[in-house]
TrEMBL record:
InterPro entries found in the cross-reference section: MFS, MFS_dom, MFS_trans_sf
Positions of the UniProt region annotated as Disordered: 494-517
Name of the protein in question: Putative drug resistance transporter
Transmembrane segments: 12-42, 54-70, 82-100, 112-132, 139-158, 170-190, 202-223, 243-270, 290-318, 324-347, 359-379, 385-410, 431-449, 469-488
Primary localization: membrane
Gene Ontology cellular component annotations, sorted alphabetically: plasma membrane
Superkingdom, taxonomy of origin: Bacteria
Length: 517
């Protein structure tokens, strides 16, 4: 880039950032917009609690399972190209979800949306990480993080509004015009970036297969535990054709959990061996030698579990227990968005003065306060306005912590490994989202005396106490996340921002001028 073209290139980079933010907002909204519409979906498609968990979790499971592969593909084949492909797949999945007439069709469409989302998210994050440096990088991540936290918090309000004025399919149809606009703007304003060539030889086939299967089995075990039994089988369920014997000594749940853990352990072993032998890997394990990357991802996982547990429980509580309309429930949950937008506007300035990791600790402490207040209000089956008041500090914490946690986690990742590092961080968040819905649903099912029919969800006596139980689990998880954030703060302050470089010599960052996709 010549010096005289630098101002023009800078303007283009910032314009491209807003396009990336729009793509990010679309897929993040889809992760939370469905929550308020879920009671209507349950009634319309005759879902039980297990089906409802899958509507929320399947999107995140597929998303998480494919993110590492998508991040590596973006590094090798071009992040803008992958972004365009992902938006196309996501829009197609949204159209199929809006047209679904039964649970199977809806879940298949949600899985396709997850495929598209897995291509979009690392493309946006890695492009930001590779394009912006220095002070511009802090501002860019501030915008990116504010959009992510704001969209996640705004999703319930938008979902309630769209469901109220029309019906639940509109929460999926809304993605179509947004996706088309993002695709056109991407071709016009986003430059291509990629790494020249991944270090190593061959293609990592076993890595993605092992990680995807391991994650899927663990989430399957958590979600299906209420219907299949934690240890002994409850009936003779059919699993992909064959029926699990009712007289079997154990149910499919512990088997799935155990096999999932073994597959994830095998994934780490395989990736380590491939890396030592000079072959390509879908996950560069050397990134975890960076303390900020390790502590940051641990914190992000716990935060996502707590956040999505809360977002799964509260819409059901507000609609079924308090009898609020979809729009009213969305307005209650919008207090999170209000808090996130208010604190997101000042988070960057606080980070510049006190350090980003201290802002993360403060934000998570506020999330714990808000989640605790929500659990107390839910226990007493308090009014909707009391839930909204409880969620305001939670939203303030969300806005403070989100962008600064992402920026700190990726601070020491070399630009040439932006795709892999960003995909790993995004995988952790999506895994947390899937686990959060699964844990919340499992806790609800355990606390309810009957939970296999939609009418049980509306039990006015059992559901508030069950909701509170799930929220207390979220509080505990967020409290642990605050402790890991404190460890991240301690580690980050001991380690200078000139990070140990782990970039292989064969990898260089390459930025290309716009070209046809």
């Amino acid at each position: 880039m010549t010096a005289e073209r630098a101002p023009e290139a800078q303007r283009r980079a910032w314009a491209g950032l807003w396009v990336l933010a729009a793509a990010l907002a679309m897929i993040v909204l889809d992760g939370t917009i469905v929550g308020v519409a879920l009671p209507a979906i349950i009634t319309d498609l005759h879902l039980d609690l297990t089906d409802a968990q899958w509507v929320n979790s399947l999107y995140s499971v597929v998303f998480a399972a494919l993110l590492l592969t998508a991040g590596r593909l973006g590094d090798r084949w071009g992040r803008r190209r992958l972004l365009l492909a992902g938006v196309t797949v996501f829009v197609l999945g949204s159209m199929l979800a809006a047209s679904a007439g039964d649970a199977a069709a809806l879940l298949s469409a949600r899985a396709l949306q997850g495929v598209g989302g897995a291509m979009v998210l690392p493309s946006t994050l890695s492009t930001v990480n590779a394009t912006f440096r220095g002070r511009d990088r802090a501002a860019a991540f501030g915008i990116w993080g504010a959009v992510m936290s704001g969209a996640a918090a705004l999703g319930p309000l938008l979902g309630g509004f769209l469901t109220q004025v029309s019906n639940w399919p509109l929460v999926f149809w809304i993605n179509v015009p947004i996706g088309l606009a993002v695709a056109v703007a991407t071709m016009l304003l986003v430059d291509e970036t990629r790494g020249t060539k991944a270090a190593g030889i061959g293609v990592d086939v076993p890595g993605p297969l092992l990680s995807a299967a391991g994650l899927a089995l663990i989430v399957f075990g958590l979600i299906e535990s209420s219907s299949l039994g934690w240890w002994t089988p409850t009936g003779s369920p059919a699993l992909f054709g064959p029926a699990w014997p009712a007289a079997a000594p154990v149910s499919p749940v512990p088997v799935a959990l155990a096999v999932g853990v073994v597959l994830l352990a095998a994934f780490l072993v395989v990736e380590s061996r491939r890396q030592r032998s000079g072959r390509t890997t879908v996950l560069d394990l050397r990134l975890f030698t960076l303390p900020t990357f390790s502590f940051g991802n641990t914190t992000a996982l716990l935060v996502a579990v707590g956040e999505f547990a809360l977002l799964f429980v509260l819409p059901l509580f507000l609609v079924t227990s308090l009898g609020l309309s979809m729009l009213s429930a969305g307005l209650v949950l919008a207090s999170m968005a209000t808090g996130a937008f208010l604190s997101g506007a000042v988070a960057r300035h606080l980070a510049a003065r006190f350090g980003p990791t201290r802002v993360v600790v403060l934000g998570l402490a506020l999330e714990v306060v808000g989640a605790t207040a929500a659990a107390l209000v839910t226990t007493a089956s308090g009014p909707g306005w009391a839930v909204a008041a409880a969620l305001l500090p939670y939203g303030l914490g969300l806005g403070l912590a989100s962008a600064q946690l992402t920026s700190t986690t990726l601070r020491d990742v070399p630009p040439s490994q932006s795709g892999t590092g960003s995909a790993t961080q995004s995988t952790v968040r999506q895994l947390g989202a899937a686990l959060g819905s699964a844990v919340a649903g499992t806790t609800l099912a355990a606390a309810l005396t009957t939970h296999q029919t939609p009418t049980a969800l509306a039990d006015p006596t059992a559901f508030p106490a069950a909701s509170a139980s799930a929220l207390w689990v979220a509080v505990a998880i967020l409290a642990i996340a605050t402790l890991t954030a404190w460890a991240l703060d301690h580690t980050s302050r001991r380690q200078p921002e000139t990070a140990p470089q782990i970039t292989p010599p064969a990898i260089q960052e390459k930025s290309c001028s716009p070209q046809p996709s």
